[in-house]
């Protein structure tokens, strides 16, 4: 926890706050990022680069505050819940229109929920709807019914209490889309998105850029910016050079050596995203030899995580991880003793498992940098070297981002790097999505280790139905112990990802969940 206190001090030292200048309207913000979006239909994406864009186009019923995960009104102005925590009534904002001019109302909310939760719905197309399964227990899962009370009142009935229900609804994947546009574009809605958000979709050149324009009639006031361009620039150094040259306004995925360059450049500033993430290597337990706990333990002992974090993460903005959740979340178990770097012990475990000469396998490396892994290929090469030292010959494999995600969800990998940025500030969003047996389903797996523990499942389901946070925290601390014991992952790092931007950019506040609306951002 001492390291996390240092994290907080770094955050206080470097985070950029909006100054007292009067905001200026107009201009284009160019955001340089490490990869392209996969789809722009929010319910059908799980990757951060897609949600970063859909967050601008769509609104949710409720949303998070700019600086934390406290839930506040958005398209719903207020809500009530029954004593048994199973019936939620939402009172909707009046006078809101989708970008195509059609009205937002209770019928639109019901249309979206019915589309999400019912595979037989005629508009249930465009993807696997993974997030619905992750957060609401599949189809139809926990949501029993969605009823229109009147044009601006909707009632959602659950089959059982769900503690993070309201927080889940604030996640950008559960944004409300135009029913008219979905009916019009059908399977092509993902590239013709229409919401109620502060920016409207203009164009998308795959692998290059996405262009959005301001929604001048936005219910929360017109954005300050006229336009946003999200540019895909895969190489960190090239992206940083463009920032220095002035061709982009904000970038993510900064190399460790570039943090100091930002501090020394009078025209640039650092932004810090609060820590709510984890980077890990999932070992596919449906494949040999990863079904043997001795092999999984050996791999954990073989890798010097501290050396990797020190070498390939910005100094002061990352820490070695030992739990699936970051220390900023309640339920974090600081009593866990991490596996040490001990290659000799790794070799002994491999001998015990029947692999005295090691074995050959593949190690899947992410093709894009993410906040939790700024230099994915270099990290993969380092891990490859550590594995080689104990006799494991791991060939590095990679694919384009969309293919990589789909193939890992299909379970085609042996070992694969991946990570997660928390969506709602609740431990359930990590444990249930990434490690529960419910989500170890090939084709739409969030649990790409295909780790199936009845003991863990029982704890996680119990934690979902309890409203007392202290009681839930104890359950998640136990969950940390179970995952540590069963080692489905090499849990690598948590980060406070630094971003960089021009000093002419104001009021950009990175959110812990990985994406933020940009309607209050302005440029000199």
From TrEMBL:
One of its GO terms (molecular function) is peptide transmembrane transporter activity. GO terms for biological process: peptide transport. It holds the Pfam family SBP_bac_5. Transmembrane segments: none annotated. Gene3D superfamilies: Dipeptide-binding Protein, Domain 1, Dipeptide-binding Protein, Domain 3, Periplasmic binding protein-like II. Keywords: Signal, Transport. Residues 70-439 form the Solute-binding protein family domain. PROSITE patterns: SBP_BACTERIAL_5. GO terms for cellular component: ATP-binding cassette (ABC) transporter complex; outer membrane-bounded periplasmic space. The keyword Heme does not apply. Residues 1-20 form the signal peptide. The keyword Signal applies. InterPro entries: Peptide/Ni-bd, SBP_5, SBP_5_CS, SBP_5_dom. CDD domains: PBP2_DppA_like (cd08493). PANTHER family: OLIGOPEPTIDE-BINDING PROTEIN APPA, PERIPLASMIC BINDING COMPONENT OF ABC TRANSPORTER. Belongs to the bacterial solute-binding protein 5 family. This is ABC transporter substrate-binding protein. The lineage of its organism: Bacteria, Pseudomonadati, Dictyoglomota, Dictyoglomia, Dictyoglomales.
